[in-house]
Amino acid sequence: MTSKTTALLLGLSVAALAAPSTGSGQSLFEDNFDGGTSGGSWLSATAVSVPTTDSYADFAFDYSLIGIPAAPHSLGTTVGMGFVVNREGASGGVLPGISASPIGMHFTGDFRIEFDAWLNFVGPFPAGGNGSTQMASFGWGANGTSVQYAASNRSIIFAASGDGGTAQDYRVYRVGGGAPLAPDANPGVYAAGDVGGGAAADSRQASNSYYASLGSKTAPLAQQILYPNQSGTTAAGTFGMAWHDVIVDKVGDTLTWTVDGLRIAAVPLNGAVPGGDNIFFGMFDINTNASTDPNNFLNTAIYDNVVVTQIPEPAAGMLLLGVGGLVALRRRQRGTLDR
Predict the structure, then answer these.
(1) CATH top-level class of 25-311
(2) 297: which of 15, 119, 153, 336 lies 20 to 30 Å off by Cα?
(3) Is the predicted pLDDT of residue 332 greater than 90, yes or no?
(4) 114 φ, ψ (degrees, to nearest 5)
(5) Cβ distance 302 to 244 under 8 Å?
(6) In this structure, are strands 156-161 and 300-310 parallel, antiparallel, or unpaired?
(7) Given this model, what pLDDT does residue 314 score?
(8) Boundaries of CATH 2.60.120.560 in the chain?
């Protein structure tokens, strides 16, 4: 065997060891909510004590009741986890938010969170009706008992507006609350670019051409029939009024967020210490005033088919395979030379 062949095989073996596995790993948690009993498996919390008519979570929400079709990963069923926030403006001037986590769960190491998400909002589109700008939110690092939202979090939060009604439609919050991470002050976080600070240029804004594959949706026909004001077409780049396949990957100290295969953001912990190691889903309003639309319950975030899987470590077996191939080749060559 030549030295070049030996080097090639060793190189392949090292590459196989270094390459991350793309195969599906062990399932750590899943809930499709179809059993209608998930209320005993999830715990919700609100930013302040408000009536359940103002902000609430429904862990067995039949979203077909408001004209939404089955989620892409459902087998024809239409039961999911739904959130409504700030219907009555009962938060007393405090920014309202709600979130929920699976009870007693802990997710460490490298893993993937994948789920279907739909953010509904009151029409007509594209601008939306009164109070239509609210945020779907989700992430990792929760303690499982306290609310995770824009004004108060000990976690990594990813958030998207439904209607594109804010200059920061795609947001990342790192441990500690406060404002979302600014692109220019946190280069490399937002895939759309590192420009921030202005509505017309901010790379977090849905009107940025990077998000063009999203948006431009109409309400489902069933919803239009039930609520005629749900007319028109959503703006390009927006998250609302459609099912999305959302993935959050945690690899090392970096969490990466993609929507329908489009990378939105990748955020390192940078030494920040989350308050826990649970996942969470929720919704928050960017205003304290409630929507005056009579159908403001249509401002709702829905999640379905939540699956958390372990991301396998680089397969040591691939190294063994490469080494085994090297040994076999050497044996074959030796046998040829002996002849």
Answers:
(1) mainly beta
(2) 153
(3) no
(4) -130, 140
(5) no
(6) unpaired
(7) 66
(8) 25-311
